Amino acid sequence: MPQQSNDAGNEISDFEKQRLANIAERDALLKKLTQEAQSSGLFTQSLPKGSLGNTPKPKKKPPPKKIKEEEPPAPRRTSSRLRGIAAESEVAKRKADEEYENALQDQRAKRIRRPDSFTFDDMVVWGQKLTGDSLIGVDVVTKGVAKPYGRTFSDADVKETTDKDLKALREEMSGLQLWDTWEPNRADPCVLFESILLTSSAGIKITPERIYCMAFHPSESKPLIFAGDKMGHLGVLDASQQKQVSGVKTEDDDEEEDDPDPEITTLKPHTRTISSMFIHPLKPTHLYTSSYDSSIREMDLAKTTSVEKWAPSSTSIDESVSSIDMAADDPNLLCWTTLDGAFGRYDLRSPREDTASWQLSEKKIGGFSLYPSHPHYVATASLDRTMKLWDLRKLSHSDPTPVGEHESRLSVSHAAFNSVGQIVTSSYDDSLKIYDFGPKGIDSWDVGHTLSDKDMSPSTIVRHNCQTGRWVTILRPQWQMNPQSHIQRFCIANMNRFVDIYSGAGDQLAQLGGDGVTAVPAVAVFHRSKNWVVGGTASGKVCLWK
């Protein structure tokens, strides 16, 4: 049977024709758009595969990479040890552990007190003896968030004072001037510290770390200042010195005259924070310092030597001393408190075994003081939020009972007695409380006398910001022990970068500041009799007003 032609099957349908026309139109449009984009620099890629025109040839697939056979994993350290092979990582780890432990032991050793006797050469960190062979000279041998620089007491308050005596005292205290013999912006050749004169604030740097305590020497011939810092350094500054220019400047000489640095001395008698210091007016050649390294040392200022006078029986016993004081009529009776809440008393002429001790608080006693005229009365301030008054004449060692106590809302930082029977405390409840026991007959109380809660209430409460935070030393009030008038006065730092001075009645007498004082002079102390006030900052600097 003859084969028939199948022309109908070879014909392209209308639908297929239309599809091919659409494809051709699309390819033409894409080619045109691509050429326009290429001419304008916007598109440089070739046309997609399957389009009309120059279709790129498909690239051949690269041959598959040969996978190298991996070596079997190295045995673990346990396997190395089992096979008797010393792994280098184990040796390195043991060496690192040993070095770390040695570093810890070195740090512990630095914090352990040193019971040795020190000479000047043993203690000196920077500086020199101030005059001759003696460190102090022959004349002595014989509230809320703080608003920086915002004054809370001004000249207007002084002018508006109606009380004649109070106004005269306010004018006198407000007239104290910042000691600025040396400019604060000067560079210093000392390479031990970053600079002796801090470039950002007034004052002179005499310790490398934050100042924790300060004291004036009782001499009235010159302001001699001692400061103890966080790391056990003791700075000494004679603030009576003046600039001594050496060399003569001629008209043809463009160089400035020499401007020498102030003479200071920095020693290191302790291994940890110096918490307190005291110079007895009947023994002015000896400085007593207490420390968190559990020791109390006596420095002979004339010989520049330091001797340990009290410490626990073993260097492994930690009894950090928080504060010291001495009886006004006995330069050999030493008293102190500890961070564990204990109170100690020791006669320097007796063996150390004769030390008397009382556990007065379960928490830290931050500060205390003796009543100058009757040193058997002791005022303590504690972390347990109380100020307590004690009578050492009849005080049980097993169950000590105070004469009276007053509780604040928050912890009490310090309690300071003055010569007329007043106690001032600073507390974290942002208050200064003044207790007046003179009119209540403290000078004539019998042994066993007690006070009611009403009698222990403060006579005056002054609002004062005491929120020092972490980097500022706790604010503690300090009385002028021998004021040259009948008005009692004390000083305390102000978080606004001032030092405030108050009377025993709670009236503010002055607010001391000055150009360049950009840090809080947190540690503020009065001279015993002269109207000199000094403040110490967290940078180890002192600011003096006189």
List the helices and strands and how they pair.
Blueprint: H1 7-10, H2 14-39, H3 77-82, H4 88-111, H5 120-123, E1 124-127, H6 138-141, H7 155-159, H8 164-174, E2 204-205, E3 211-216, E4 224-229, E5 234-238, E6 264-267, E7 274-278, E8 286-291, E9 296-300, E10 305-310, E11 321-326, E12 333-338, E13 342-347, E14 356-359, E15 365-370, E16 377-382, E17 386-391, E18 404-407, E19 412-417, E20 422-427, E21 431-436, E22 460-463, E23 478-479, E24 489-494, E25 498-503, E26 508-512, E27 523-526, E28 533-536, E29 541-545
Antiparallel strand pairs: 1-6, 2-29, 3-4, 4-5, 5-6, 7-8, 8-9, 9-10, 11-12, 12-13, 13-14, 15-16, 16-17, 17-18, 19-20, 20-21, 21-22, 23-24, 24-25, 25-26, 27-28, 28-29
